Amino acid sequence: MTSLGTSPTTLNDAADVVALLVLLSEFAMLRSSLSRSQVRLYAFQSLCVSILAGFVAATRHIVELYGLMGMSFLLKVIVVPLIIVRLVKEIRVDVTASHRIGVATMVLLAIVLSVFGVFVVGHLPVHSRSLPILPLALAAAVILVSFLLVIVRNDVVSQAIGFFSLENGVSVASLVLAAGLPLIVELAFLFDLLVAVVVFGLLMRVHHGRTGTLSTQALDRLRG
Amino acid sequence: MGAVLIAILVLPLAASVVCLKAPMRAAKSVSLTSGVATFGLALVLVSSHHVATALAGWLRADALSVVFLLAVSFLYGTTTVFAIGYMRPAEGLAEARYSRRFFAGLNLFAWAMAMAPIVNGLALLWVAIEVTTVVSALLVAIGDTDGAVEAAWKYVLLASMGLGIALLATVFMYYAGSTVLGGSYEIFYPKLLGAAPHLPPEIVRLSFGLAVLGFGTKMGLVPVHTWLPDAHSEAPTPVSALLSGALLTVSFYAILRFYQVSVRAIGPAFPRDVLLVFGLASLVLAALYLASQRDLKRLLAYSSVEHMGILAIGMSFSAPIAMIGVLLHVLAHAAAKSTAFFGAGNVIRKFGSKDLDRIRGGVGALPWSGPMFLLAVLALSAMPPFGIFRSEFLIVEGGLSIGATALSAVLVVFVTCAFLGLSWFASQTMVTPTPDSVVRSEVSVWMAGSMVIGLVALVVLGVHPPAQLSGLLERAAAELGAHT
C-alpha cells in the first residue's frame, strides 16, 4: 500500500492496522450468523474506532478528541451493545440472522466493494495532518460494506448493526479528514444512534409481539 | 436583527419545554403563540436588507436563509392552528400524556427546522438536520401502531444512513476548506464561499455528489425516497404537513448550500448534471406512481416527491429567473402541500379512513374544508391564480431562456400527468354524492381555519407577491450565483 502514500513511521502503521481491524470486523459482521455475535463484533469495531480517536488525540494534541473517545467508548462499546443484547434476549427467540443471497456471494460482493472503495478513495488528493490516507480508504470500504449488510440481511438486528457500523466508518473518515471538526457533529450522530435504538426497541416490542419474528419480511404493510 | 435570530433560537425551544409540563389547554395556547410569533419574527427579517448575525457569527441569516425560514415558520404557525383542532380534549391519563408529548415534539421539530437555515456553517447545518430526523422519527412513531412503527423504522434507518453520507460530504468539504483556510474548522459560509475558487476540485465534486445523495435521501429524491410515502401516511396529520412542506425543503436548503460552494469552485456543469438526474427521476416516477395510490396521504406524499423533483430540475437550469422560480416554489409548495394535508386531515377524521375507495362525497360532507381541499389540490397541480402556477411558470421560462426546450417540455408533460392523477382522485372522492350515513358538518373550526390561511397565502403568492418578498427572492437567487 506504499502507493497510497502511507508514511513509514511505526505510529502510522499502527493506525493503519487498527483501521484494518475496523474493516475486518465489518466483514465478520456480514458473515456471522448469530445476532449476538454480530453485536459483539460491533462492540469490538467501536473499540477500534475509540482507540483510533485516542491515537489521533495523543499524537496531534487535539484535546476534544479525548472527549469523543470517551463518549464513543461509553456509548458504542458498552451502552448500545448491552441494550441490543438485552432486547434480543427478552424476546427469547434464538435469532439466527438470515440473508437473501449465499454467504460466498455476499462475501465476494463485499470484497469487490471494498477494493473499489479503497482504490477510489486511496487515489484522492488528500494530505491529512492527523492520519495517513489508508484509514480513509478503509473507511470508505467499511461504509460500502455496511450498506451491503443492510441490503442483503433481512432481520432488524442486522439492519440496525449495519447502520451503527456505517457510523463507525464515517467516524474513521472524519478522523482522517477533519480531526478538529466540531465535537458537536460527532455527538449529534452518537445521539442519533440512541434514537435508532429507541425506535428499534419499539419495533421489537410492537412488531415482534404480533408476528413472532424479527425478519423484515413481515414489514410489508406499507408499499406502493 | 441579531435579537430576532436569538428569539427564534429560544422561543420554540421554550414552548417545547413548557408543553412537557403544562396541562393540555396551556400547551395548545403556548404552541400557537410560539408558532405565530416565530412567523412574525421571520417577517421582520424579510423586510431587512442586511444580513443578520448573532452569537459571534454562529447564527446568520442572509436572503437565502430567510426564504427557507419563512417557509418553515409559516408552516409552524398554521400547523399549530390545525393541531389545536386535531388533538381532541384528553379523556384519560394516557391520552393526556400522548398530547403532551405530541405538542412538545411538534415545537421541538419546528425549532430544529428553523435552526437549519439560520445556523452559520455546514457542520452546524448538518447537526440541525440530524436533530430534525431524531425528533420527527419519534413523532412518526408516536401512534404506536404496527404501521407507525414500521414507517418510523424505515424512516430512521434510511434517513440516518442518508445523513451518514451527508456527514461524509460535510467532512470532505471541511477538508477542502482547510486546504485553503488552514487548520481552523470554524468555517462560516462567507469564509468558505470566499475560498471556493481555490478549493481542490476533485474533493468538491465528490463532496457535492455525496451531499445530493445524502441530503437527497431526506428530501425524498428518487431513488432514495422510499421512506417518504410511509412516514407521511403513518404520521399524525400535523406532522405529515410539517414533514412534507418544511422538512423536505430544509434538506433542499442544505443541498443549495453545497451548490453555492460547488458552483464557485468547479463551475455549474457538474452540479447541474447531478441535480438534473435526480430531479428528472423524481418528477417522472412520482407522476406515474400518483396514479396507482389507494391512500389519501400517500397520494399527497408522492406529490411531494414530484415537487422536490421540480425543485431539483429548476436548480439544474441555473438561469436567474429559474432560481427565483425555485425559491418561490419552495414557499408556494409549503403553503399548498400543508393546506392539502390539512384538508386530508379533515376528510380522514370525517370518514374515519384514509382509503380512497371509502371516501365519497367529501364536498357535501364538509361544507367548508371540502371545497378548500379541492382548491388546495388544484393549487398543487399548478392552477392559476395560486402561487405554484407562478413559480412553475418562472421555472419553465428559465428553462426556455437557456435553450433547454426539450427538458422544459418534459417538465410540463409530467406536471400535467401529476395533475391528471391528483384531480382524478380528488374528483372521485370529493365531488360525488355524499352517503346518507355521513352528517354534513365541519370537524373543527381550527382545522378548517388553518386551511383558509394557507389558501390566502397561495393567492397572495400567485396574484401579486409583495414587493419586499420579490426583492428577497432576487437577492437570494443572486446569493446562489444567479448573476454568473
Provide a descriptive summary of the structure in words.
Chain A has helices at 10-31, 35-60, 64-90, 103-122, 134-152, 156-177, 183-211. Chain A has 224 residues and is mainly α. Chain B is mostly helical and 484 residues long. Chain B has a domain at 268-484. In chain B, helix 10 runs parallel beside helix 12 (296-317). The chains are: A mainly alpha (224), B mainly alpha (484). At the A-B interface, helix 5, helix 6 and helix 7 of A face helix 5, helix 6, helix 8 and helix 9 of B.
Observed structural traits:
heterodimer, A: 224 residues, mainly alpha, 0% strand, B: 484 residues, 19 helices
Rg of chain B to the nearest angstrom?
21 Å
- How big a fraction of the residues of chain B is strand? under 5%
Estimated structural class of chain B: mainly alpha
Structural class per helix/strand content of chain A? mainly alpha
Biggest β-sheet of chain A: count, sense, barrel? none
How can the largest sheet of chain B be summarized?
Answer: 2 strands, antiparallel
Instruction: Tell me the β content of chain A.
Output: under 5%
Helical segment count of chain B = 19
Number of strands of chain B: 2
What's the number of extended β-strand segments of chain A? 0
Give the terminus-to-terminus CA distance of chain B: 29 Å
List the helices and strands and how they pair.
The complex is a heterodimer of chains A (224) and B (484).
Chain A: H1 10-31, H2 35-60, H3 64-90, H4 103-122, H5 134-152, H6 156-177, H7 183-211
Chain B: H1 2-21, H2 24-47, E1 52-54, E2 59-61, H3 63-86, H4 93-118, H5 122-141, H6 146-181, H7 189-195, H8 201-219, H9 228-234, H10 237-266, H11 269-290, H12 296-317, H13 320-351, H14 362-365, H15 369-380, H16 387-401, H17 405-430, H18 445-463, H19 467-480
Antiparallel strand pairs in B: 1-2
In short:
Chain A has 224 residues and is mainly α.
